[in-house]
Amino acid sequence: MTLLKIKVPASSANLGPGFDTLGLALALYDRVELQVTDAGLKIEVVDAGAGDVDDVPTDESHLVVRAFRRGCEHLGLRPPGLHLRCFNAIPHARGLGSSAAAVVTGVAAAYALAEKPLDDDALQLAAGFEGHADNAAASLLGGFVVAWNEGERFRAERLQPHHDIRPVVAVPALRSSTDATRGLLPAQVPHADAAFTAGRAALAVHALTARPDLLLSATEDRLHQHYRAPAYPASSELVRALRAAGVAAAISGAGPTVLALTTGGILPAGVDVTSFDVTELPIDPGGVQVAAQ
Hints:
This protein is of the alpha+beta class. It has helices spanning about 65-75, 100-115, 120-125, 135-140, 180, 190-210, 215-220, 225-230, 235-245, and strands at about 5-15, 20-35, 40-45, 80-85, 145-150, 155-160, 165-170, 250, 260, 275-280, 290. The strands form two sheets. Strands 1, 2, 3, 4, 5, 6 and 11 form a seven-stranded mixed β-sheet that branches.
C-alpha cells in the first residue's frame, strides 16, 4: 500500500500588525507517515511534541485525518483505510501554527495520493479549517506570506524574506486558546489605531523582504496585542522588554509564544527569559514536503 512521508513547518502569524494576513514559516517540523491500508483507521502518536500527549486524538477527529478526508473528497478519492504515525515537534496551543500544520499535512497527503501538485484549491481546503490563511499559507508555501480574502476565496502570495533575518522564539509552558484570545478582541477599534496598524503592516512587508533595519517600527501594533495581553502577562512583558532593548518582538499568532525577528539569532543578555524556552528557528524556505514510497 502507498506510504507517504510528510514534513510540515511551524508558522508564526500576525508578526505584529499583520493580523490574520502575515505569516512566516519556521524550521520546526511535524513529520507524519501516512499509509493507505485495506480498511480501518490506526493512529500512532510516536512523539506528540512538547509532551502534549493528551491533546492528540486517535480517532476520526484527528486534524490530519479530517483534512486528509476532505482533500480526498475534493479530489475524488476514496481510500479504504488509513494508518498514521505522528512524529510531532510543534507545541500545541502556543501560537506556532500546530493546527494549521496538521491540516496542511492532511491536504498535502491527499494531493500526493492523487499524484497532483498543490494548487489554489489546496489553500482553500487548508485555510477553511481556521477561517484565515496566514498560518496555513506559511506551512503550505514556506517563507514569508501575505494572505487575504476575495469574497469566500482565500488568497496568499509567498515573498522572499531578507536573508539577514534570524527569528528567535521564546515558548512558555503556558498554553493559550485561539478562540479564547479572539474573544478578548473588541468588535470595533479607534480609527486612529486602525490607520496606524495598516501603515505598520505595509511597512512590515518592506522590512521583512528588503529593510530588516526597519523591523522594530514595522512590528508595532495597536489592533490586537494589547487587548490580548491579560491572557499571557509574562509574554506581553517579554515583548515590552525586548522592544525596549531594540529587538523587533511580537506575540506569535494568538500566543503565548514570543517571536523576535533578529539579525543575530540571539536575545539581549539583560532580558529575563528564565520562564521561556528560547530557540533560534530559521525561516523554512519551501513549505510542506511529501515523499511517496
